[in-house]
Amino acid sequence: MAASETVTAESGPDHRMLVPAAIAWPAAAVAVEREPLELVIVGCVAGVLGALASHYRYRLAAIVLLVLAAVVLVTGLRVSASTEGPIGDLAAEGVAVQVRLEVTGDPRAIETEYDDLVVVRARVTHVEARGVGIDTREPVVVFADAAWSRVELGATIRASGVLDEADRSNTAAVLNAASDYRVVQDPSWWWSAAARMRAAVGDSVSKRSDDVAGLVPALVDGDESDLPEDLDEDFRTSGLTHLLAVSGTNLTLVVGFVLFVARSMGVRGRGLIVLGILATVGFVLLARPEPSVVRAAAMGLVAIAGLGSGGTRRGVRSLSWAVIGLLLLDPWLARTAGFILSVCATLGILVLAPAWRDRLARWMPRWCAEALAVPLAAQLACTPVVAAISGQVSFVAVAANVLVAPAVGPATVLGLLGGIAALASTPAGQVVGWATGLFAAWIATVGHRAADVPGASIVWSSTAPAVAGLAVLCAVIGAACFWTLHHPLVCVPAVAAVVAVIVVTTVRPVSVGWPPDGWVMVMCDVGQGDAIALNAGHGEAVVVDTGPEPGLVDGCLDDLGVDAVPLVVLTHDHADHTGGLSGVLAGRRVGSVSQVAHEMSLPDGVREVDLDFGEHQRVGDVSWTVVGPAPGVDVEDAAGDGTSVNNTSVVLLADVRGVRILLTGDVEPRAQVAVLEATDDLDVDVLKVPHHGSASQDPDLFEQVDADYALVSVGADNDYGHPTSQMLDLAEDNGMRVVRTDQSGDIAVVSDSGTAEVVTD
Q: What is the dotted CATH code of the domain comprising 519-633+643-760?
């Protein structure tokens, strides 16, 4: 009888470690924000209570308390090591230092409102300040200019800069570094080998389309540096963005392929275990040992175990131990969205994928069944979490994941093989890359097409009841799949119908009722940025600024039916006004671009032009006069906060079919006054509010333009507090109706016999 009971207990899923893992997670999330001394006290108390519970045979309570003690104590030690060394003390005083750094992360370029920066994670091993040198080992984040983009992971360098306090407890300080640095030791051979392999993967598909050339490195090792922005945006809309980041799926595919080849060659038992470990280490080196990669590797190994023979029984227990182990290794993972998504995806794979695979395998090849079941289960499990984090639900995500699932494995594995071949011979690698491109191109096509489906994603409340309701809906869908996946007469027509909908609706996306008849101007909703179209007639528009992302302005112009752009005006050199230029250029005839002061490559046939103060031009129904920047305006930026660039904004006084519009870029009060002084007649119907409705406004501007409408291009829940109450009061005091993209989406100005009216999308 005892033996029978043992078999029964062992045959089902083992959930015993779920409770300790579920308690350790929030404990780590809270602990990383507490003082080390507090954590030591709490950890010791939990440890003593755990020992007492063990003595009195309260096994579950003992395990929970001992795991809690371990997590809290380890977190306390890690926080202390990161924040209580000499670097933190120097950062509190803003001291200039000379440092020796070990580079622990690849350089990453970021765009800010004022400048482009390079961010590098590193470890300080020696610091010199105030004539004293100290050896240490403390993590820092380096902010520097473009010269640091050539820094290699694993290198040791000497640099100088000014320390500033960090805002996270896993970082001792921020180093605002000078441009000059000196490499004192090259990366170790394994880092160099991994770098060559990453480059070889890119080389193998370099002759393919931009989508393929950017997508394959992302699939293989998480390198998104060459990914087209429109593809990135469409993947977000279509629920495929998880393919672009290093995840457990990447490891599952790569290590699974290595083990498949090894089994085919007769390797068994411990040999498979050794190869699996070596393949995992190689994958981590290739994708970089960032916390997210280590997390992905752990979850990938759990998923591989769970999909194997007898793995369902061990899967949940292995996942629980993986969560605890990762929190001990890096407690800050507990506060990251990637961690919760990985856990949910792995749980979905463990609980749902094996049964779904077995049902599909009754009427299709087993490898194909697994390729479909794994991403489908992961996507369904993650949907409520994605909604809670992003406030959106993609209606096409499940269908898109089903359609790309058979291609993800071949694209990833062939991409890896192409990189290996390219190490020996670039032409050989490109032959494999051609085959890789067939699968990668299909994935990109599905991403684009799915994102173009009307209503592909909707806003979803992040409140607890809304997310709970979505979780229940996903559970119902998951239960229904147990029946439907067993019946090909149900599945095949359903998939065919989805494909038909995507194809039909994306041949020419229809936006009912938009644009409104008689539109003269549309302010595109591009988030925190500007993008404006002035209707020149016959499918042409003058575009003023392009927003931060290509996909957003591209979609807006598609909705407006704009096929040709005689002129693109980039008002000033900030990314939230220029970042989407490639979206305007995509598939349209573009005549000229005013490039302001920054350098940007333009396609053949597109001219670069300068716009001079006082210049008057006309294209179709659009005429304009350049009224800013006014000659002699003092744009000195003593504060160094980007005001000087804002004040160089091109300001246009436009007339479209009798509607007068003042387009102001991001001009600040000093430049606003200069425009008023240099221009006689600024009486307009519509004012494009400067700088997204910031508080930096001159009251005389609002009084003299005497506009009926004040339009604000602004991102929802932006970090700047735009539009400010001061600006809103200023508009109201001058009788203007304020219309905002964060509340109304795209905003159209229409002309009714020369009278301006506003219609929103």
A: 3.60.15.10
Retrieve residue 44's tokens.
Answer: 């010791």
Q: Residue 304: pLDDT band by 50, 70, 90 thresholds? A: low
Q: Which pLDDT does position 312 carry in this prediction?
A: 54
Q: Give DSSP secondary structure letters for 321-382.
A: HHHHHHHHH-GGGGG-HHHHHHHHHHHHHHHTHHHHHHHHTTTS-HHHHHHHHHHHHHHHHH
Specify which residues 144 forms β-bridges with.
118
CA distance 327 to 329: 5
- Three-class SS of residue 172? coil
Give the strand pairing for 686-688 and 659-663.
Answer: parallel
86-187 CATH pick, 2.30.40.10, 2.30.29.30, 3.20.20.70, 2.40.50.140: 2.40.50.140
Domain coordinates in residue numbering, the chain: 13-82, 86-187, 193-501, 519-633+643-760
Q: pLDDT digit string (tens) for 62-91?
A: 888 999 999 999 988 888 877 778 888 888
Is the distance from CB of 357 to CB of 366 less than 8 angstroms?
yes
Nearest to 94 by CA among 143, 45, 163: 163
Question: Residue 310: is its pLDDT beyond 60?
Answer: no
pLDDT at 634: 57
Tell me what pLDDT residue 639 has. Answer: 44
**What integer pLDDT is reported at residue 313 of this predicted model?**
57
Cα–Cα distance measured from residue 194 to residue 187, given in angstroms and rounded to the nearest whole number:
11
Taken in order 122, 128, 132, 133, is the CA torsion positive or negative?
positive
- Within 10 Å of residue 256's Cβ, how many Cβ atoms? 20
CB of 331 closer than 8 Å to CB of 31: yes
* 76 and 29 Cβ atoms separated by less than 8 Å: no
Judged by DSSP in three states, 705 sits in helix
**Ramachandran bin of 562, using left for φ above 0, alpha for ψ from -120 to 50, beta for the remaining angles:** beta
Instruction: Please state the separation of Cα 670 from the chain's center in Å.
Output: 36
Name the β-bridge partners of 157. Answer: 101, 183
Q: What angle do CA 375, 378, 380 make, to 5 degrees?
A: 105
Name the helix (H) or strand (E) containing 626. Answer: strand 622-628
Which token pair is 587? 């598939």
Cα–Cα distances (Å) from 713 to 200, 576, 582, 663, 694, in that order, read 43, 11, 20, 11, 11
State which amino acid sits at residue 111: E
State what percent of residues in the chain have pLDDT above 90: 29
pLDDT at 364: 81
pLDDT digits (tens, 9 = 90+) for 708-721: 999 999 988 788 88
Q: CA-based Rg of the chain, rounded to a whole angstrom?
A: 29
Percent of the chain with pLDDT over 70: 87
Q: In a 10 Å sphere around its CB, with 0-12 CB exposed, 13-18 middle and 19+ buried, how is residue 594 labelled?
A: middle
The answer, yes or no, to whether the previous bond of 515 is cis (omega within 30 of 0) is yes
Q: How far is CA 178 from CA 97, 117, 132, in A?
A: 11, 12, 20
Average of pLDDT values for 609-633? 89
Residue 98 pLDDT grade (very low, low, confident, very high; cuts 50, 70, 90): very high
* Other residues' Cβ atoms within 10 Å of the Cβ of residue 498: 18
User: In the β-sheet with 747-752, what is the strand arrangement from edge to edge?
Assistant: 607-609, 589-594, 564-569, 540-546, 531-537, 519-523, 747-752, 755-760
Quick: pLDDT tens for 396-434. 777 787 788 788 878 888 888 888 888 888 888 889 989
Residue 105 banded pLDDT, cuts 50, 70, 90: confident
- Look at residue 124 in the predicted model and tell me its pLDDT: 92
Contact 242, 385 (CB under 8 A): no
Give the Cβ contact number of residue 298 at 10 Å: 23
The amino acid at 351: V
Q: How confident is the model at residue 8 (pLDDT cuts 50, 70, 90)?
A: very low
Q: 699: Cβ–Cβ under 8 A, 6 or more apart, which residues?
A: 730
